[in-house]
Amino acid sequence: MSQSKDFNTRIENRLPVAREGLPFIFTGAAVTIIMFSLGLSILGIILGLMTLFTLWFFRDPDRSGSAASDAVLSPADGTIVHIGRIEDGGNYGINGPALKISIFMSIFNVHVNRIPVKGRISGIKYNPGRFFSANLDKASEQNENNRVTLETWNGHRVTFVQIAGLIARRIACWVKESDPVDAGQRFGIIRFGSRVDIYLPDGSRIGVKLKERVKAGQTVMGYLP
Length: 225
Fold this sequence. Notes:
Strand order of the largest sheet: 9-5-6-7-11-3-2-13
Number of domains: 2
Largest sheet: 8 strands, antiparallel
CATH architecture of the largest domain: Distorted Sandwich
Shape: elongated
CATH topology of the largest domain: Glucose Permease (Domain IIA)
Distance between the termini: 41 Å
Order of helices and strands: HHHEEEEEHEEEEEEEEE
Oligomer: single chain
C-alpha cells in the first residue's frame, strides 16, 4: 500500500474503529474462540470481555460540523487540566508568548486526534522521553511526545502535542510536513490514555475552562487573534 493511499485511508476512515486497533481486536477474538473450542469457558468469557473493551476503546466515530475560520477546535477528547500562558513559545514554533491548553485523555475517551484549525503542516518533531502519568504537569515536558505545528492561511502558527502517558506507549501521527489539512480532520491516535497540549499565539481568545470536557473536532477551544 502506498503512503498516499494509507494516509487517505486513515484520515478518511470509514470503519467504526481506528485501524491501529484491528490487530488487537482480531487477535483477541481469535484467542477467545480458541478458549471456547478447548472448553475453557471462563477464560473465553474473560478474553471476550477484554476484546469487547478493546473494540470500544478504539472506536472512531465520524464527526462533522462547521465553525468560524478563526475558531480552534479541540484536538482530542478529554478533560481540560491546564490553561496558562508561557513567555516563550519558541520551542513550539510560536514567536513570543503563547497560550497553552492541556487535555487529559482517560482510557474511556475516544483516542483519535483531530486537526484544530485549517492550514498547512509546517513542522513535526518527535521527542523520546519518559512515561509519567499524563495528568501531571511535568508530563508536558518530560514524557515522550510528538509535536505538530501548522501555519494558517493568515500566518498564525498553532502547535499541538501528542504526549504519551503512564500506560500509553504508542503515538501514531498520520500527517507529514507540507500537508494541507482541514479543521476536524483525523491526524493520529495515542493508545491507552494520554494527553494532548495545544499552543496558540498570544492574543487568542480562550473559550474553555478548567475541568471542562471537550470533544475532538467539535468543541471550540478558542479563537485566533
